[in-house]
Predict the structure.
Amino acid sequence: MQQADQLPTSVVSPLEAETTVDAGQLKDGKPALKPTLTIVVPTFNERENIEPLIECLQRALTGVDWEVLFVDDDSPDGTHQAVQEFCEHNPRVRLLRRIGRRGLSSACIEGFLACSSPFVAVIDADMQHDERCLVEMLRPLQNEEADLVIGTRYASGGSTGELASNRVLISKLSSLAGKLLLKHDVSDPMSGFFMLNRKSMESVIHDLSGVGFKILIDILSSSSKTLRVLEVPYQMRARTRGDSKLDALVALEYLSLLLEKTLGRYIPVRFLSFVSVGAIGVLVHVFTLWFAHIHLGNDFVLSQSLAILVAMLNNFLLNNIFTHRERQLKGWQLLGGFASFSLACSIGALFNVQFASFIFEHSQVWWLSGILGATVGSIWNYAMTAKFTWKH
Ligand code: GDD
Ligand code: MN
């Protein structure tokens, strides 16, 4: 541990901290807390981790003027109540509660924007990241030797600890894919544990996509100038309370982030997802038509109508799960959603036919007319359903 007199000016010595700012209480009628470091903790169903995490932070950060900002997506387990109880007597603890929203990256971004300290960190709530590294991560930022410090599991001294081997493999593969996108050579671009200065954060904030899980990749790939990056190795710990939120859909979100950072400049990724669902819909249509044709006798109109209905339902549900994941309709909303989706797409089909016929009249090229008609129809369907079904 460094001596107090060697510490940079904005780090207070442990002794001083105890008597003045460590509890963050009022001093001479003025708030003593003007944090140097805000630790943003995204949470979803982490109720049992709140108290242990705050205790660990308190122990690890003696001497630093810090605050912790939990960004909770209205977790059903009442995480926000657990945080609120701390907020009432501990000014170092803050809560940002989002209603009707989901997403780790967007939670971090909103946490960055809701604080004003010169340094911000992100850490999991479940104590998988080693909070004792925070002081070591802060120092080079304060000394202006780095813009971004990443807690890494893959440099020497770091480890993935007890992380399941399939998770390690997924993590390594996606790190590799991520690296291809980045200007920066970092060993663990998937890390959810890092710290940066406000200037760097401000320089990327407008370009962050906020999609999915990978906030660090988002930051690294969005910065127009190369950030000075340092890595601090840590040993990842096992989660002891609550469950991981990393599911199969997260891999898709990751893919969509990579696409957005590459193709996204030209075509919106949400539109690509919508069109891919449409392509699956065509297969579902043909399959249903084939099946119905065999089983419903020779009633082609009935089979075709059934195929349209099944394909429409398929497209609606897939778009609800993937394309508009963060505005997913649930329960009774699904009925209204399906009605508006079907209506918008039926009007889209009319446009499709009209436009294709118009092109065909002039060009006599059937495939060109078909493709252009389908393109116009898809753009209409995408725009209208985004607005009226998922209410963007
Ligand atoms: N607000 C909010 N909204 N928080 C969320 C959400 C969400 O939709 N989803 C997850 N979180 C919170 C969790 O509560 C946790 O504090 C943190 O984000 C990370 O989620 P975990 O469920 O603990 O993820 P993990 O441990 O499986 O994945 C970790 O390792 C990855 C590397 O393999 C994370 O640190 C990732 O960021 C990291 O990339
Ligand atoms: Mn975790």
About this structure: The pocket of guanosine-5'-diphosphate-alpha-D-mannose (ligand 1) is lined by residues 42-44, 46, 71-73, 102-104, 107, 124-126, 128, 171, 190-192, 213, 244-246 (CB under 6 Å). The radius of gyration is 26 Å.
